[in-house]
Structure formats: C-alpha cells, structure tokens
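Figure S7 source data.
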Amino acid sequence: MNYQDLVKQINQWDHDYYVLDQPSVSDAEYDLAFRALLALEDEHPEFITAESPSQRVGAKAIDDYVKIEHRLKMLSLSNAFSLEETYAFFEKAAKDLNLNAESLKVFSEPKLDGLAISLHYDHGLLSYAATRGDGLVGEDVTHTIKTIKSVPLKLSIDHPPEILEVRGEVFMPKLAFEKLNQQALQNNTKLFVNPRNAAAGTVRQMNPKIAAERDLQFIPYGLGEMVGTPSFTQHSEILAYLHSLGFRKNPHCYAFSGSYEAFVSNYELMEHIRAQLPMQIDGIVYKIDDLAQQASQGFIARSPKWAVARKFPAENSITELLAVDFQVGRTGVLTPVARLTPVFVGGVTVSNATLHNMDEIERLGLQIGDKIEIQRAGDVIPKVVQVVEQGTHRTPIIIPERCPACDALVHQTEGQAAYRCSADLSCNAQGAERIRHYASRKFMNITNLGTKLIELLYNTGRLKTIADIYSLNLEDISNFEGQGEKSAQNVLDSIATSKHTKLGTFLGALGIHEVGEEGAKSIAQYFKTLDTIMAASLEDLMQVPDIGPVMAKNIVEFFQSTENKDIIAKILAAGVNWPVIENQAIDKLPLAGQTWVLTGTLQQLTRSEAKALLESLGAKVAGSVSKKTTVVVAGLEAGSKLATALELGIKVMDEAEFVLATNTLSQV
Ligand code: IVH
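Tokens for the predicted 2-(butylsulfanyl)adenosine complex:
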C-alpha cells in the first residue's frame, strides 16, 4: 500500500472506532499498519502530511500558552433551574417572534460536562484549537487537542470550506475517568474531583504525551467562523453536516414543538437516560432549531436568546460526618460507610455515602465530626469529596478487629488496600452472595435456584451455607409466594442434576478469592483430584500455569479452615461428583499436530503460561515462523515474526482472539 493510502486507511479505521463506535479491524492488523506507516515516515520524512495519524502525538511539549483571539465571540448559555423557567424562556422567545410556543421547533441536546473548545479548519485541515477563555481570548491547546481521535485532522469532504470553525465540548467519558482515578489511587497521586476537571486538566497539559494516554472525546454543538460552507436553514442540519465531515454525534438529541408537555416529557426522558450515558451530562440544552428565528432573536450580554441550559439539580452539598460503619460485602471485604446528617443533594435526601477503603479515609484526612462535601453523580451512591472544616470534637476512624457480621478476625491482604473478614463460607454476611455465586450458570448451574429465592431462603435462615442447598425439601421452597409445588419440584430437580459436575467447575464455585473460572480449571487439570488440591502447598500451587502467589496463598488458607472443610465434606456426602480427570492421549487433544508461535507482549498471561496452555491442548510451540506454522499469536509490539507470518499468509491472532479460541477448547 502506498503512503497516501496507508494514511487514509488508518484514518478510516480511527473514524470507525472513535466516531462511529464500530471497530472494523483487529488490533493486530491496526498495529501492523501503524508500524508500517511509522517506518515509511522514518525513511521518507518528506512524505509526512498534516493528516497523518502519526501527527496526533509527537508534538513537542509547550512551555507557555499562546493567546488566541476569537474572531467571533464564544458565548455562554443562560441557565434555567426548573421546567417553569425553561418554558418561560421559550414563551418569551415565541412572543418576540410573534408566535405561540407550540409552533416553535425546539431542538434538545445533552449538555456535555466538559470544556468548550474551538477547532479551526483551514481548507479542510485542522490548523489550531483553542479554549474558550473569557469568550474573547482563549489559549492555544492544539498540541493536546490533536491527540483526541474523534477530532478529525482532515475533514472528510472532497471540497472543504475555506474556513470552518467547529465549536464543541471536550470531555472525559465516565469509564476513562474511573480508570484515571484508579491509577491515581495506585500511584498515590492526587485524584481528580470529577470528569470535567480531569478533561480540563488534560487539555491544559503542557506535554501532549500525557493527553494521548487519556481517553478524551470531542462532540461538536455548533459553528463559529465559516467561509465557503453550504447554506443552512436549521441548527439540526448543521449537526448532520458536522457528522458527515467526520465528527461524533451527540447522543439523544430530539426535535419537538415547544409545548409545556413536550418539555416535561423530554426532561423526564433525559433524566432517565442520564445514568446510562457513557459521559457525564449536567443538563439539557434547548435551542430554537430555525436559524432565521435564531438570528432575529440575537443575544443579551454573553448568551443567546435562542438557547437555554436546563441544569440538573446541584449534586454537591455540605454536611456532617456522624459515624462510620463497616459493611461486609459479598467477598468479605469491609467497606467503610459514612453516616451523615441528612442533606438534600441532586434532587434526593442523602444520609449515607461510600468511603471506598481505609486508604481513602486517610487520603481525605477524615475524622468523625468533620464538616464534609459530598457529591452525587447521576444515580450512583454519593461519595465524600473533601473535608471542608475539621470538627471541634473529632474522633479517628478505626478498622474493627473483628468482622461485624460473624466476629471472625479481620485481616489486610498483602499489597492491597482492602481489609477482609477471615472467615469464608461460614461468614453470614458473605453467605447469600456466596450461594448465588455457587449456584450461578457459570459454576454449579442450578438453573431454578435464582437470586430471589436464594435471598428468601437465606433471610429466613433455611439456607446458611452452600451445603444447605442439598438438604432443601419441597416444603422449604413452596413456603414462598409464587413457588407452587411444581416450581418447587423444578428447583429440587435442578439441584439433583447439578450434582454431576466437573472438578474445575466445583473449585471455581467455592468462590476462593481471586480464583476465577480459568484459574480453577488450570488447578483441576494440574492436580486432577480434590484431595490433592486440598493438600497442595504454596510451592505446589505455584507450579500451575496461571497461578500466582496471591491466588496460591488464598487457596492454601481456604483449605486450612475447618469450617470450609466441613462444608465441603457435607457437599460431597450429598452426592456432588465429577468424572476422573485422565491424562488425555496427546493425539486426541484439540490442537494435536499444530505448531503455534508466540510473539510480542501478552497482557493477560505470561509467555510461559500461554505456552503451557497451548501444550496442554496438544499444540507444539515453536520459536520461529515457517511455512509449517499453524497460527501466530501477536501480542503488543510484535515485530519481525508477525511480518513473516503476514508475508507467508499464516493465520494471525491477537491476544483477545487467542484467549477466546483457547477458552473454547479448554475442556476441564
Ligand atoms: S450550545 C452560544 N450545546 O455549555 C453557546 N453548549 O454553559 C452555544 N455545552 O459554553 C453553546 N453541551 O461549553 C451547547 N449541547 C451543547 C452543549 C453546550 C455542553 C457547554 C458549552 C457552553 C456551556 C454553557
């Protein structure tokens, strides 16, 4: 492929992924193309064009901000805090236009909670990007904005306008924000208060490399300067035009006639959708769709008279920390919960907030009696943002020595922030969740014993541990509403059927911390019997592919507990069984006769784990690629082996495909 085509191809893939949310190529193929591009650019720097995807990063760090004057002022929006205010705004606008509100076409857009950015395209190429600043003068932030993959470096149109200024919001999606703060917690650096601060902080980074590592997005909401654009009559046409040029669309935009009822139902809908959106929104922007009507409305001070921002109720409030309780979660982790003087925040009264873990309490410098700021984002549980004022009589928060649910000792897992109850199967706070985990489809697959029934049986004391499942009778189950004799019998039948299982499945069902489905399978395949697993030492367990020191330690501790051993004995006595695991004849294994090559860095498992896994499935693992190679697994930064494989037309899998393929083939 020549240079121009390569640039086009990668930009198209980026567009599919970052603008349309429809990935169209495997990671391996993308990486290969990108590497080919970099190699070409290295050899022929004269080829490099402004639209090359390599130009997104690579810009030098800046040492000062350059001011940029907005030739057309960047306005702000006036706010409305109730439906009445919103409706009154459009009633007034309609009156000015000699219309009634019902005959206005209103366009609604989510109000994205980020920062306003202006993008300048000169003959279709991004020339610079600026913040809003005071509306008249902003700052040049081209170096960080260029790293945002949903900002096209070149507009996708054959005859671009001479000048096009696209205005919109840069924001950080909720998941990316969580990830960033997770990293900050691990690295002991400062947490960002919310996605908006994180986005603003990232855009204003001097070094674009930092911005490139964080997932920012851009969604346009309008135009500024323009020369040589088509003529538009509606605002919604402008948004469609921008999408056709390669920009993302704001999700959940609606056009409706401006009746009071329409505003009510639009608000209710958006309030409902809000929590499900991948990005934080802080309100709804309502605009008059007709551009001629907009023009005749004009502006007051800093905001247009044709649009208003209906803000969602405030989400931060100040209150007092009355106490901290410790809740034992489903995995035995003790979570501190803040008990507060009730306070109205984000439209509801709140009296509890989460504190995550003891590290978080330390980070906040929090003590009982302090005045604190709490935040409620969307529907999520409120959290404590900061101490506003220390209490006059403050008491430190101390982790209890014993589990509040079962009185077993509490201990801290090495290297982790969490404190845990040392009991496993016998701790009643963990009980219902442990039973649900045990009975779930992935594990014992007791199809008719659902979460609701488990909770009912658990709360009435009939089901205390997983062993009690096997002594349930018809009467126990049909006692509950909606459980006739027939459905109760179905539950008993599915318990009976589930008794025939596999060792790996049973081991996973026990819910040993960190031991998931895959880990349990590997252990079962390696040791072959439950007795051997129960007697295995730390060193024995570390021999198993996939099993690290933490998992090994958890397994040893689990089987040291007399309570756990008693429960397992009861389950086996009830008839739970599995077929003997035999060493399969090599030639019967699914990958017998195949030769695989591993190259590049794998993320989910080590090279030797991947090798052991392939060998356990019967494949040979070779060090170099030849015509005889069946599959090449290409991890990150795969090099010449990948290139050879592609040359020879040998099947290439990225890590995700590899994991999927081997999962399907693993049999225990
Ligand atoms: S329209 C004349 N639409 O909200 C101003 N703004 O509070 C045109 N914002 O500065 C702005 N989402 O940064 C508009 N869908 C949206 C928006 C939006 C977020 C921001 C924008 C603006 C601020 C005003």
